[in-house]
Amino acid sequence: MKSIRKLIIAIGVGVSLLTSCQKLDIKPTNILTDDVIFGGEGGVNSYLADVYRKLPIEDFTYRPTGRDGRWGFNLHHEWEHFWNAGSATGEMVGPYGGMDIGGGCAYWPYSDIRAVNYLIETLPKYSANFTGNRVNEILGEAYFLRAYYYFALAKRYGGVPIITSVQNYPEQSIEELQVHRSKEDEVWEFIGKDLDQAYSMMPETSLRARANKYVAAALKSRAMLYAGSIAKYGSVNFVDGDAKAQGYVGIPADKAAAYFQQAWDAAKLLDGHYSLYQKNPDKELNYADLFLDHDSPENILVRDYSITSNTAHSWDATFSPRFMTADALSRAYPTLEFVQRFVQLPVTNADGTPRRFDNLADLKQGLEPRLLATVYFPGATLRGRQFDMQRGIYPTFSGTAAAEVAKQPDQRNRIVASDPNTLYQGLPVIGQTGIRPPGSSDEVSRTGFYVRKYIDYKKPQNECGLFQSTQSWIEFRYAEILLNRAEAATELGKADDALFCLNQLRSRAGATVMSMADVTIDNVRNERCKELAFENHYWWDIRRWRIADQLLDNARFRGLMPYYVLNEKKYIFLNEPEVFERNYFFDKKFYYEPIPGGELGKNPNLYPNNPNY
Amino acid sequence: MKRLVSKILLGITLLAGSACTKIDNYDGPNASFEGKLVDATTGGNFQTSTGSVRVRLEQISWSDTPSPQDIPSKFDGTFKDSKLFKGKYRITPIGGAFWPIYEPVEMDINGKSSHDFELTPYVVIKNLTSTLNGNELTLNFNIDAPVTAGMPGVIDVQPYVNTTELVGAGASIYDYSDLMKVTLNKDWAALTDADKNMTLKIPGLLPGRTFYVRVGVRLNDSFKSSNFSEIIEVKVP
């Protein structure tokens, strides 16, 4: 018995020893290797698809503070698009308790940059698999992508480590991998250089949602404009500290003009290759459509979404009231301050009494079409339903608007309600979309306005639910390029060129054209804030102009509250604080985000941290 | 079988017993640090409020690049932290409306340590008087700057009114305080005599209450903090 057992063991050991010498050098079946990825166009496309997906495009789903400890990009199952930068800064008021986004979300995408560097290093080894100039063209695209990542870093942190090759551990020592921060202007210069290279290597056209040489030029005009204004305004309004003294944040003022010139030159490259969207002679509809038309000649780079690939977003469901959508709720609303960038609304008579309107919709009469296509006013219609918002009903109203608003709330002779179905003498008090008193549920307007930009008004109501919106995000559109160029031109003293750009935009918008005397930096900026509203530009703009600490200095924003005056059967509009009366304060240190704490722990060469952190 | 189980149990016990021989011999945070922030112009304590002056500690005996920890100053200009690890610290008061301190103090904190810091405010509020006329409070005061060269601009001047002695920025009644703000946005040299000798009126104080009132002048430096006057008590009959 014992000997049989020994025999079995001996045979077993013998067999396994013999078979173990087989070579196991077979290709893994579950991962793609370099020769597959770089074996041709298809492999590279799938590699780049992942890079584009992770690209820090601040689209519908971008959440500036991140969520659940993750960066704010590409969040899984993200539908609450009202947690956006605009609604923390006074373009809108939203769910943020105030200006809560200054610290950012610890974005630090060096693993994604590594993927691009890997492509740049590896692709040339497989050049035999590509025809003609394709290798160069793909490399150019990679330079654009790398610049895009560094742009997202530079505008947040100033100077960061510049990594241009693939790092390897343990082949390289820890000390070698702890790369020092570069100075802020070195990072902007690096971005410019990568984009120049991208521009020279890439073709004129590209697949949809992919970059071509003009996309690189578009990014360059944006990035160099940022660098120019940081040099010019950041050297006047800044926070002192070691990082500032050593150049990790801040750019010497004398470099501003060169950056503005680069921004202008880059913007000029797009001349004649893209044009403003003007398909519809109705200027209001035209402006609304430009954000919905799949084939707009204004689009330079878009990001697409689809229901089948589980990438659809929820813009329609989260920026209009539930009355007009299939589910969800809205929580971010344009402020009166934003609307007043266009016009002082004629709601008060010369004697200070509120002007009486026969219909809610009469307020919209004669306003700039672009404004009406950006914001839903009281009385506007969406999917066959009217924005019937009211703050309440006055049985009678006398006196001036200002005196009425200054009264304590309990001394105001008005009827308010938190339930849209509440009636007063048979009339709805606030309407289905109307403004509820403080303390009610947060799902209808706090300011009397709703966002219209990007709202797909042609979509049937039952298809306006969560994860059912597929309109593209337009990351670069020609209007921005004209604004970049106009701003750079104004900074460089070329007012005539700025005027030429601005008037193209203004005539498309249905606004009156400007004259040379109107071309001041304040007007150019205001035009930018109007044209690019709710497109996640405003926060970065007021930051780089270094005016955020003045604009958001314990700021409280206002709304325009419609009321029905019962005995006169008229409507009035009162300029009142938005319902939540939130306070927005920008601490000067927020001109830069703090270097993420976890990274500081890993790499002491990232010190000094940005000032005041 | 039983012997096997008891052998395994013995093994586990031995392993568990020997795993715990090392004792955490690092002292707990049993050192304390306290002190006063002294106003160099008056010799009294530096007047402050919430979210303003703090004493920044960096434990350089622990790391070359230590994460800073801050002790917020109390309203009366004192500070104390009794849960610190002993060691060598670099200490800098920051955050308030005073001339920055470029040479931080480096000292050992061990047991009960203390240190006072002398701060030079940007602006001093002098001769604050208050008169109550019915329910309207009038405040008169002058503002002065000990050092004017290179001084940050003056953003605004405002009263702070609260119903408790904790009164200052972030601890005041909006309608009596922020709404009474006088915006200047001027450099010191551009201030007029009227700007420097100011009268603020606060109407509509609720009768039968006691209010605590002070005045703040906000400066446009890195922190946008304010210099504060002393707190005065106002009883509205």
UniProtKB/TrEMBL annotation, chain A:
Keywords: Cell outer membrane, Membrane, Signal. Signal peptide: none annotated. InterPro entries: SusD-like_N (IPR033985), SusD_RagB_dom (IPR012944), TPR-like_helical_dom_sf (IPR011990). It is found in: Cell outer membrane. The keyword RNA-binding does not apply. The keyword Membrane applies. Its main location: membrane. Residues 355-613 form the RagB/SusD domain. One of its GO terms (cellular component) is cell outer membrane. SUPFAM superfamilies: TPR-like (SSF48452). Pfam families: SusD-like_3, SusD_RagB. Residues 109-225 form the SusD-like N-terminal domain. Belongs to the SusD family. This is RagB/SusD family nutrient uptake outer membrane protein. It comes from Hufsiella arboris. The lineage of its organism: Bacteria, Pseudomonadati, Bacteroidota, Sphingobacteriia, Sphingobacteriales.
UniProtKB/TrEMBL annotation, chain B:
Pfam families: DUF3823, DUF3823_C. It comes from the Bacteria. Residues 1-21 form the signal peptide. Residues 32-119, 124-231 form the DUF3823 domain. Keywords: Signal. PROSITE patterns: PROKAR_LIPOPROTEIN. The keyword Signal applies. The keyword Nucleotide-binding does not apply. Transmembrane segments: none annotated. InterPro entries: DUF3823_C, DUF3823_N. This is DUF3823 domain-containing protein.
